[in-house]
Sequence to fold (295 residues):
Amino acid sequence: MGINRYILLLLIALLAMPVAMASSTRDDDDKNTVLKRDIRRLHPERERAKALKKLQEQMSRKAEPKDDPWDTSDEVWGTVDVPRTVGRDSVAVEGHRLTPRQHTSKSPAEQAALDSLLGRDYSLTEYGYRRMTWRDLPVTSTIDQLLPGFVVNDAGDCVSKYVSNDSISNEVFFTFAMPPDSDSMPGPLRLCVHYCADDPLDFDQLLFNIDGYDYPFYPGEHKHGSLQGGIYWESSDDVLDVRYKDLIYALAHSNWVALKLMSTRGIHHVKMLTDGQRADFAATLDLYRLLGGDF
Fold:
């Protein structure tokens, strides 16, 4: 009788071991999950890098090969300038353009699967980004700290010294008329866009995708012309009023920005803004506010 009771107790202990082990594993998994969340909060720059990479891969997948690598008439976002770091700023691969990937034939099933992927919403809300609205935050820099990064051009406009303010550049930046003296106010904040490429565009809308959210802007009449060698340029310069306060704030506080120039000709050009351009937005807005600028 004693032996049978001993065997019964042993069997009960053996049956209970997997349950205890599973409970311990679940506890360890929960601890690991919490630890990973804490690491993500401590290192937001890692999430920004992953978000930027995901955006670039998504938009690159949507680029179909055409004779003109900037022709994006059939695409949601089209070809993208993927910058490479050079000194302070970044420049686009192959002179402001990314050569589309080589076309490969796909079966109907493969094409359907690809279409399904491209049709998804790739807004990067899982990284903690949200649509930004204007916040009247205090400026932490001083005028003396910011001024060395700017120049005043012949027209009296205050522009970042890193901006190429000419007709053969591709630039997007804030500017304003510098006050003539300390008792005067600066001119209104303006958004300037310079486009230069080997095909005319005649853009009539700017669509900024900032951290996964769209901010449209409608420029007024702008200048355009052509140069030798089949090069075309366009330049817009528009006052930013209270309607665009959210866009202004978002450009100055963005993690990444993609700009689509919408064309009346049915094609759209897309540019991924560099870290330097985004920093210039923030610095120009700070200087404008410190000098008394408002909306």
User: Anything to note?
Assistant: The longest strand covers residues 231-239. The mean pLDDT is 74. The chain has six helices and twelve strands. Residues 183 and 291 are 10 Å apart (CA to CA).
